[in-house]
Fold these 2 entries.
Entry 1:
Amino acid sequence: MEVQWVVVQPPRPGPPHAAMALTLSILMGVWCTQALEMSVGKIPFLEAVNGSTVILPCTYSSCIGIKNLYFNWQFNDNGTMQRVCESVIASEGVVPDVHIFRERVEFVGKNRDNNISILLSNITFEDGGQYTCFGRNPKEKDRNHSAVFNLIVVDELRVVDNTLTIIIASAVGGAIAFLMGFMLLKNLTLFVLAKMEEKNKECLVTSSGIDNTENGVPGSKADSKPTPKKK
Ligand SMILES: *[C@@H]1O[C@H](CO)[C@@H](O)[C@H](O)[C@H]1NC(C)=O
Ligand SMILES: *[C@@H]1O[C@H](CO)[C@@H](O)[C@H](O)[C@H]1NC(C)=O
Ligand SMILES: *[C@@H]1O[C@H](CO)[C@@H](O)[C@H](O)[C@H]1NC(C)=O
Ligand SMILES: *[C@@H]1O[C@H](CO)[C@@H](O)[C@H](O)[C@H]1NC(C)=O
Ligand SMILES: *[C@@H]1O[C@H](CO)[C@@H](O)[C@H](O)[C@H]1NC(C)=O
């Protein structure tokens, strides 16, 4: 009688961290596709009392670096864009010479840490509206990039309700965390299942081996049993 020994190779599940690594690389990819990015911060609006002095924040960032970056600030006055100021930044860290077209405006960012914020003094109700921070980097075929900041001029300062922003932010964060946890758990479960299956198959092979030796002639066991195939 011939005893067939088959070494069962269980399918190898991917390591549980593979999903996470993939997610990370996708995130990095998204991050770096935008060569130049203008940002007015996490809260793109400000409510200020007339007569006060405010900073309109803006920073730029670029994966590929900048050279002769053109930027300006524009004010949307009833649909027509008015230039507030403009300049060209030769390279990172250089303080640019900024042309200012509007009164009570000062360039305060000084290009320190890519900061191109401006200061608006003694604001009036006419100053309220949309301000666009615009940038164009010749290094990336003159593509236009911009970010919009809203200035709301009020008589008296009300308490700004940030609850909704916080709720949305935590909901998005929670969803991402849940998804990552779910993927990890799924991979872990598959891994454990595969391990259990492997154990089961080992048991089957062992018991069939015992069955065969019981049927065979005692003593001839060593002769009739071929060496197990190894892979
Ligand atoms: C703001 O505007 C109100 C109403 O026009 C005026 O009474 C007040 O004096 C102004 N405040 C400042 C600081 O200019
Ligand atoms: C802006 O537009 C409104 C109507 O759309 C008009 O009444 C107002 O005079 C305009 N203001 C300026 C500064 O052009
Ligand atoms: C802002 O108002 C104050 C007091 O009215 C004045 O001294 C100052 O020069 C004004 N600033 C600008 C930039 O106009
Ligand atoms: C940009 O510069 C202004 C003025 O120096 C400062 O108040 C602001 O915090 C800076 N913003 C960032 C993001 O560094
Ligand atoms: C970028 O903006 C300028 C105006 O500032 C416009 O003339 C040009 O066509 C825009 N280029 C692209 C690629 O959108």
Entry 2:
Amino acid sequence: MSKRRLTVTHFGAFEVESDDERVTGVHPFAKDPDPSPIGRSLEANGRNRVARPSIRQSWLESGPGSNNHLRGVEPFVEVEWDTALDLVAMEIDRVRSSFGNQAMFGGSYGWGSAGRFHHAQSQIHRFMACIGGHTNKVDTYSTAAASTIVPHVVGTPWRTLQADATSWPVIAEHTGLVVAFGGIPLKNSQAQHGGQGRHGLRGWLERSHDNGCRFVNVSPVRDDLLDTVAGEWLAARPGSDVAVILALVNTLVVEGLTDNEFLDRYTVGWDDLRQYVLGESDGIPKTPEWAAELSELPAARIRALAIEMASTRTLVTASWSLQRAQHGEQVYWMTMALAAALGQIGLPGGGFGLGYGAIGSIGNGVKRRPLPALPVPVNPIDSFIPVARIADLLLNPGAEFTYDGGTYTYPDIHLVYWAGGNPFHHHQDLNRLLVAWRRPDTIVMNEPFWTATAKRCDVVFPATTALERVDIGGAPTDDFVFFMPRVVAPFGESRDDYAVFSELARRLGSHESFTEGRSAEEWVGHLWGQFLDRHPAYPTLEELEASGFIQHQETVPGEAHNVLFSDFRADPETHRLPTPSGRIELFSQVIDSFGYADCPGRPTWFEPTEWLGSPGAFPLHLTSNQPTTRLHSQLDHGVTSLEHKVGGREQLRLNPLDAADRNISNGDVVRVFNDRGACLAGARLSESIRPGVVELPTGAWFDPEDPAEPGSLCLHGNPNVLTKDIGTSSLAQGSTAHTCMVEVEPVTDAPPPTAFVPPRLISS
Ligand SMILES: Nc1nc2c(c(=O)[nH]1)N[C@H]1C(S)=C(S)[C@@H](COP(=O)(O)OP(=O)(O)OC[C@H]3O[C@@H](n4cnc5c(=O)[nH]c(N)nc54)[C@H](O)[C@@H]3O)O[C@H]1N2
Ligand SMILES: Nc1nc2c(c(=O)[nH]1)N[C@H]1C(S)=C(S)[C@@H](COP(=O)(O)OP(=O)(O)OC[C@H]3O[C@@H](n4cnc5c(=O)[nH]c(N)nc54)[C@H](O)[C@@H]3O)O[C@H]1N2
Ligand SMILES: [Mo]
């Protein structure tokens, strides 16, 4: 007898049909107007799973640090739970007592699954804090440059800025022109960390268009903007956005169209920026002609666009991808500066927005609200890395790094513990990471699936998926909260992250502080109870279980009328921004005082070290954007992702002109390469991709032909064998995945991908 139960994922809510053992069907949530096709892939829940605790052979037989170069090469031995737990607890104890807790990296970046209690990152951080602490990470791969620069410029914390974004009903009513750098990609609005009950972006884009709003998509990819809004496509060179925005501001100055009253009253540093824009400080006027050379957009179009922007209610938006590039801080600073020069910040439908389309909630108008969450005690150890510096950390113990004005030292890491992330999907320059990964004595992971990272660990604990346990789900910026029932039984011998950490904590003398005496289900009840104490209007957990979901009463998307910075505009004294000047900082004394050559006191154009402006040996720009058909690497083995592959490999889109130059036809296997690595992919010719650019989305499971050799060909198409592993700048040290040049060639006789083949397993 199959049952249908409602649950929530990062890409939406679904009714999941099962026979208690397997998922047999997936159906969209009735309240979702535009459900994500990724839901269908949940049927893959029972495939590619880790069934039993598994230990790399040399580590088991010869101890920590043995034959680390065989990680990902030699077989695993499947052992009893107690054996694996005893060994890992002993190893944690050895490392913390011999080297100190900072020798353990538990930063464990990743999205894991939806669920307020079983949130893998909170679980591991709580565990690490309870056993004395660990080296942690700060910021995210998504938006490290943004979250570091934004508070310097407008004072507001990044998350608040996102939640307070001007809402779509306001845009639909008031905005005449949206100029979208990086577009407003519908594909990305499928996802929302924590879950999303309603996918509304398509409807809002169409409604704005119907109301007469014009959209301009400045991006290498035409379908970064929905085609039914009939937007204009300006296919600038990737990485040239700062130059284009400087030229827009230059035109406003030259044409006398800057809003000087706004600049006087609400900003500091305009004189400095104006001089830079006019070339008075460096001899280079940032004219449309100057930007045309750099961006390949016509100078006349840049000039006309600036004049148009000043003549109507204009919203300037920038996708998150723009700041995941070298000098990513500058493009956000300059976007805010352009909006300030236009003087429409705080007016309905004007100003700027950062990340419309990046995730589903931006502009939905739902005020951020606290939801129940597993408490994570303060980490007793203050050692940390900027999140994307993981390979630097492992390779360079004792080296110094800068971050947001401070100088810090990388500790010497002996043990890495990961839960809820996939660094051999998400990190840049995977061949460099492969070398770095050999350094620690021990690498432990909780993971449901045999991912590339799981295959490269010493100990893998099989983790349950969200479909296999009870929880509460929802995002603080969504208008629903869901009950997450157990839909299927735990696969094989898998256990919840909570159970794994509870048992390790018991062996390390921290069981009481980690568990507080509660089982997992008691924790869920306890967290909901605490939430009810603060919000008594909500139903009891039993009622929530019976109804499946509850919609928050206060804000319903569609009725929300947020206007970002309207208070500040109305009264800049009472509503001073939390910056040193209380205003928008177009020049920042604080950043200037850091003395960074690569991030000075005002927004600045820097030519990327690799880009179409100076192609060198690798003539094509690679955009490794987010995948339409899965969530990062998650459910790459699901039907939605598999159907999209070309000959079983990730799809590489390229312009027919570039394909013709290289004798590449639709469906060919191609080799994508540069001096950092190479992968195979399946070619798809498309007029939607700007000439000179190729698109290979992230998330195909990393699949080196020879796992023993860093640098070997990835057979499946993971773009991170090609990307560069340097920080955005000395300020944020964020990921720079989008600064990457490659060459592409057709290939015959390519070996088939093996990404979904599990490792060799030996039963003990
Ligand atoms: N080239 C390039 N690289 C990029 C990006 C880019 O634009 N270009 N984008 C970057 C960005 S923005 C991000 S956010 C990262 C994403 O990187 P990640 O968040 O690391 O990617 P996911 O594939 O979501 O990995 C989550 C892992 O958690 C596992 N998991 C799911 N549920 C559970 C659970 O309950 N318990 C445990 N223990 N594990 C669980 C999944 O099976 C999966 O392996 O990638 C980054 N990498
Ligand atoms: N379906 C799906 N949705 C997702 C995710 C997923 O894995 N799957 N991941 C989620 C996560 S973790 C994040 S952080 C967000 C990320 O959200 P974003 O960072 O906005 O997403 P991307 O897809 O990397 O980039 C958006 C577009 O920017 C364009 N672009 C790239 N480089 C440049 C450039 O230099 N200039 C200009 N003008 N445009 C450029 C590319 O064409 C790309 O399609 O997406 C979220 N949404
Ligand atoms: Mo992200």
